[in-house]
Write a structure and sequence with these properties.
The complex is a heterodimer. Chain A has helices at 4-17, 49-54, 71-80, 115-125, 146-153, 161-174; strands at 22-30, 35-42, 86-91, 95-103, 130-137, 140-145. Chain A is of the alpha+beta class. Chain A has a six-stranded mixed beta sheet. The longest helix of chain A is centred in the first third of the chain and has 14 residues, at 4-17. The radius of gyration of chain A is 16 Å and the shape is globular. Chain B is 38% helix and 18% strand. Chain B has helices spanning 3-9, 33-39, 54-62, 77-85, 97-106, and strands spanning 13-16, 26-29, 44-48, 66-69, 90-92. Chain B has a five-stranded mixed beta sheet, with helices on both faces. In chain B, strand 2, helix 2 (33-39) and strand 3 (44-48) form a beta-alpha-beta unit. Chain B is globular. The relative contact order of chain B is 0.25. The chains are: A alpha+beta, B alpha/beta. The interface between A and B is medium-sized, with 14 and 14 residues.
């Protein structure tokens, strides 16, 4: 994919499809180690060990509409192309943790892209999801958490137009300075 | 145009060729799998420098007429195995991706 944020959107949909009510996404750049780590942790139904061992294969999918699934295989291939790897931990009933590492400066590493729009899209479609997004560069961090926002909104749904617009601007602003990742 | 004509014209090296009697209706060249998924047409022949098993996944999903790995790149073992299992015609060639795309265009194929 052209942007890493597109992988994040795709994998977030996996979490939703797995019945997750909570999803934590973290994008962390370590400039000294020249490493970028993208991780997703959900509380969805998880995968059995046998399925985890095969899930990087595009011909393994839970989809019933077609028999090829490319979300995780493409994320794995993107990490491998950048001297990294995709690690998957999952247990049935508890949830799934995915973490892809990339060499930050690798020439084939796609840019992070429009993460603000990605967050807005996830919330627009899943307003009841507890989403926590963290973007780190070394010791600086930006955190956006839908539960913190909900307590301030006092019952206004997150997928109301003005709320989504505010979230988009807030995330865009928050990820554009000390925690900017290109 | 038949796959056999293309294979012969471009002097492609068949890795898996269940049948070359396949009608090819368009062509596509890209290394970005998501781009191929979005834009290549059913029945297209696809030229790429990727060699990962995911290319066969893309070929199955789009019902492609065949895949050409250009630039002298060898496919991964599981890519070849899966191409056989899924009856996806798979070719390799020393010719660069640029030249493969140019030759397909010369033969009259378009991406649309």
């Amino acid at each position: 994919m052209r942007e890493l944020s597109m992988h994040i959107l795709d994998l977030a949909q996996n979490s939703i499809a797995a019945g997750a009510s909570r999803l934590e996404i973290e994008v962390a750049a370590d400039t000294n180690a020249d490493r970028l780590v993208i991780s997703l942790q959900d509380n969805g139904r998880g995968m059995a060990p046998d399925f985890v061992s095969r899930v990087k294969d595009p011909f393994v999918t839970t989809r019933t509409t077609r028999r090829v699934g490319l979300g995780i295989p493409m994320f794995d291939a993107a990490a491998r192309a950048c001297d990294g790897r995709l690690a998957i931990q999952s247990s049935p009933g508890k949830g799934t943790y995915l973490a892809a590492t990339f060499k930050l400066s690798h020439i084939d590493r796609a840019p992070l892209g429009d993460i603000a729009s990605t967050i807005v899209t996830i919330i627009a479609v899943n307003p009841d999801l507890h989403l926590r997004y963290t973007q780190r560069v070394d010791d600086k961090a930006f955190i956006f958490d839908t539960d913190e926002l909900k307590t301030q909104l006092d019952g206004v749904p997150l997928n109301e137009g003005p709320v989504l617009k505010w979230i988009g601007e807030y995330v865009k602003q928050g990820t554009s300075e000390e925690t900017e990742i290109n | 145009m038949l796959l056999a004509n293309i294979a012969q014209n471009l002097n492609l090296n068949p890795i898996n060729e269940p049948s070359a009697d396949v009608e090819v209706t368009s062509g596509y060249a890209s290394d970005l799998l998501s781009d191929v998924l979005a834009k290549a047409k059913n029945g297209a022949i696809w030229a790429t420098n990727q060699k990962h098993i995911n290319i066969i996944g893309v070929a199955v999903m789009l019902n492609l007429a065949g895949v050409i790995i250009a630039g002298g790149i060898e496919p991964d073992e599981n890519t070849v195995a899966k191409a056989r299992e899924e009856n996806i015609p798979l070719y390799i060639t020393e010719t660069s991706l640029f030249d493969v795309a140019g030759k397909l265009y010369e033969l009259g194929l378009r991406s649309t």
